Amino acid sequence: MTGTRPAWRRNRSFSSMPNNRVEPGNDDRRVAPAVRARRSRLSSRLTAGVPGRTLDSIPPAAGAEVMGTAIVSIALSLDGQETLSRVILAIAAVIWVSLAMLLPLRAARDPAGFRADARTPAALTAVVATAVLGTRLTLLGWAWAGIATLVIAVVLWAALVRPVLAGC
User: What element of type H or E holds 64?
Assistant: First the structure.
């Protein structure tokens, strides 16, 4: 039966998956010493206390929160509850901007872990979240903002679709 499963699925379960992330104290002998030193300096600044824990806690599917919130905003707008819809839209926008600021820091702190997360289908929630947010901004009458976020969604999709398909 194991011969029919893809190689990446053999002998793996979600509870026993190894942690492939390079931790600040983890000595990865395949990396050049200068790169290790730079990682150590960078990670020591980013891992101190709350910022490090915050960056570690961002899951690959973090865009789902934005996506769901923006969908609710669209539904409320279509239902005629514009005030509540705009409040929900503001919440979605704050979450999206927060993620847009935190994800590059996470990529700098843990490049290997970030690349591994970007290869999962859950990473595509960032694309959908950006597109749904753009759709809501367009419905609001802010065509320029809607077009800008939809362009960002296309760029994200182009950057993520190949690694995700290769990782599946």
Answer: helix 63-78
* Domain boundary assignment for the chain: 60-167
Instruction: Give 121's DSSP letter.
Output: G
Measured CA to CA, the distance from residue 101 to residue 4 in angstroms comes to: 42
Q: Is the dihedral of CA 121, 138, 140, 79 positive or negative?
A: negative
Residue with tokens 């903002």: 145
Tens digits of residue pLDDT in 114-167: 888 889 999 999 999 999 999 999 999 999 999 999 999 999 999 999 999 987
Distance CA 146, CA 154 (A): 12
| Residue 137 half-sphere exposure toward CB, CA atoms < 13 A | 20
Return the C-alpha torsion angle 157, 158, 162, 165, nearest 10. 30
CA dihedral 137, 57, 51, 149 (to 10 degrees): -20
Per the document, the length of the chain is 168
pLDDT tens, position by position, 15-69: 444 444 544 555 455 555 555 555 555 555 555 677 777 777 888 889 999 999 9
CA distance 15 to 9: 13
